[in-house]
Amino acid sequence: MLERLFPTLSRFRLAVQLLMLVVTVYGSVFVGSYMADKISNALPALSCAYDQMNGGYCVLIPTQHILHHRIGEAMVRAQQLTLTMVLPLLMSFAVFFAFFFVLGKAFCGWICPLGTLQEVLGRVGRRFGFGLRRLSADDLGRTERVRPVKWLILLGLVFLLPLLTGLGVTPHALGNPYCDVCPARIATTLLTGSTEQFAVPIDDNVKFVLGATANFLFGFIVLAALTVRQPFCRICPLLAFNSLAQRLSPMRLVKTRHDNCGKCSICTDACPMDIPEISREEGRKAYSEDCTLCGRCAEYCPQDGTIQLKWGPFSLFSSSRAYYKARVAGELPDGTVKPIKFVRAAGKAAGTDA
């Protein structure tokens, strides 16, 4: 039944992405705001807390708030760290890991609304003939050099500044700096019809800089996504956050060595994150911290059983030559869709010529 509805893994993933986009952006419309808040406040995906209609928001906002309002302020008052201060943070992480255990980093590749929007924009860009730009087009080291950025954002904007604000070292406006510049805040709220998050505060210099940065980053991501696959995912702090625990989840990609590995590099071409290790390495080394478990490398590997998407001992999808041939007939590994060719029937053409 699934094969008739979704002939390819990518189409099935797109259907899941679009469904989860509705859930994460408009979820409270269906279950109510109270239930949406109780279901989760620590999703491993960029579901924005500023979206008043969402079905649960990402773990970064409670992390910043707890560091700012609880741990930081408690430390500056010289109060002893007790369970009443640490427990909320532990509960946020517990919810995060409970969700993460089930799907692992597939939250990034299958559920994150900002990731879905970037993929949709990429499809639009290729439909309208925008040229695809890859970070690793000339130098495979480019992708690797970008990777530290997401860790710097996670450590600086998500952890350090909120804690320093709670300690009274930095201004109150820096209590949740990452959310103030996150493009998901603007993107998902726009989908609900609200333009409130576009407004840039002018009564506070710090808030003004953060708001202006958010608008610039949002515009840049929208334009960049037309020609570069998943531009924000490459520097997303939640991707870094998820990678800290990626080995704890049974959901994973498994690659075995083949004689052609490192020669064709089709799996790297297919990867939206341009991960060079996929074609060069095997086992865990083949999948870096940037992997979102989208499964495109398995779809476009032309060798039987070389790359598998697995949950524990169960194989959910395995590469095969037959699937690869059918896949490239309609879409190339880099996501370029082959144009439809209109050919007149031979008999009709002959009659016309006569």
Summarize the structure.
This protein folds into 2 domains: 2-241, no CATH class; 250-328, no CATH class. 53% of the residues lie in helices and 4% in strands.
Commentary on this structure:
Strand 2 (307-311) and strand 3 form a beta hairpin. This protein has two domains: 2-241, no CATH class; 250-328, no CATH class. A three-stranded antiparallel β-sheet has the order 1-2-3. It is globular, with a radius of gyration of 23 Å. It contains 17 helices and three strands. The chain has 354 residues and is mainly alpha-helical. Helices cover 53% and strands 4% of the residues.
Question: Which key terms come to mind for this protein?
Answer:
17 helices; disordered C terminus; 3 strands; mainly alpha; 354 residues; globular
- Which strand order spans the largest sheet, edge to edge or round the barrel? 1-2-3
The sequence of SSEs as H and E is: HHHHHHHHHHHHEHHHEEHH
Mean pLDDT: 83
**End-to-end distance, in Å?**
48 Å
Q: Name the shape in a single word.
A: globular
